[in-house]
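Q: My labmate handed me this sequence with no annotations at all. I'd like to see what the chain might look like in three dimensions before we decide whether it's worth expressing. Could you predict it?
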Amino acid sequence: MWFTGLSGAGKSTLSEGLMSRFRNAGARVELLDGDEVRAALSPNLGFSHEDRDTQVRRLGFVSRLLSRNGVISIVAAISPYRETREEVKHGIPNFIEVFVDCPIEVLASRDVKGLYRRALAGEIRNFTGISDPYEAPAAPDVVIRSDRETVEESLDKIWGELLRRGFVE
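A: Here is what I predict for the chain of 169 residues:
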């Protein structure tokens, strides 16, 4: 499961909820949060296009290792560039892309740290969705509108897709 979307859209919240559902069902599952993995495995990376691609490829590599060993991997990472997400997708069997969509205005109003306000004021460089691009998926497997759906509604939608594909019972 690969959750992509802008900062604050709800990727971590949804992936944690999905992890709980999997664990309650007795599945082996791990969550790879982009920020946590960056701090542990990639502290030397910045936020250039190349560094962001490297981060996504590293997440994909770890996810592939987990999957190969029978562990469901859930990745929650902005992963802003479509081409790199597609590259990773082709290397991971049963890849499901979840696009967590939310308008910038809503994200800015939710932002307790004030990052969007600062980015919109030009105080933060390379902020995805403001001064750095975010390329929405062309054909995601699941689209979540976190500004319109509750967390439970979104989790039910994701779980429904997993049921439809026969990944869960």
